[in-house]
Specification:
With 129 residues, the protein is mostly helical. Helices cover 72% and strands 5% of the residues. It has helices at residues 2-17, 31-62, 68-93, 103-121, and strands at 25-27, 98-100.
Length: 129
C-alpha cells in the first residue's frame, strides 16, 4: 500500500516538473490537478494490467500451455505500450489537466517515462533475515 502511494506521489511530481520539458504532452494545473491526473493514470494502468493478465491467462489456458511464447511476446509488448495508452486515456478523462498534442514522439516519450517510473516502484525489495 505504501508503494502505491509512493507511485502516486512520484507520478504527480513527474507531471508537475518533468512533463513541461516533454514536447507533445502538456500538463496544466497545480498539485491537486497533478494528484487527480496521477490517480487517474494509475487506475487506468491497473485496469490495463488486469486486462493483460486475463488475455495472457486465456492464451495459456486456450492452448494448454503451448502458447507461452505467444503469451510472453504479448506481455512484453503490452508492458511497454500500456503506460502510453494510460497516458492518452488520462488525457481523454481529464482534458483540462493533461493534453496530448502528438502521439509520436510526445505520448510515446511521456508514457515510456511514466512506465519506467512505475516499473522502478514495482521492483521487489530484498529483505534481510
Amino acid at each position: 500500500m505504501a508503494r502505491f502511494f509512493l507511485r502516486l506521489l512520484l507520478v504527480a511530481l513527474v507531471l508537475l516538473y518533468v512533463f513541461p520539458v516533454v514536447d507533445g504532452v502538456r500538463f496544466t494545473g497545480d498539485l491537486i490537478g497533478a494528484a487527480a491526473a496521477s490517480t487517474t493514470f494509475n487506475l487506468i494502468l491497473i485496469g490495463l494490467e488486469w486486462l493483460l493478465a486475463a488475455i495472457v491467462f486465456g492464451v495459456n489456458i486456450g492452448t494448454l500451455g503451448l502458447g507461452v511464447i505467444l503469451a510472453s511476446g504479448i506481455r512484453f509488448l503490452m508492458t511497454g505500450i500500456a503506460p502510453v495508452v494510460a497516458l492518452v486515456g488520462t488525457a481523454q478523462v481529464l482534458p483540462g489537466a493533461v493534453q496530448v498534442v502528438s502521439l509520436f514522439p510526445g505520448a510515446l516519450a511521456g508514457g515510456l517515462l511514466l512506465g519506467a517510473l512505475v516499473w522502478l516502484t514495482a521492483l521487489p525489495v530484498k529483505r534481510r533475515r
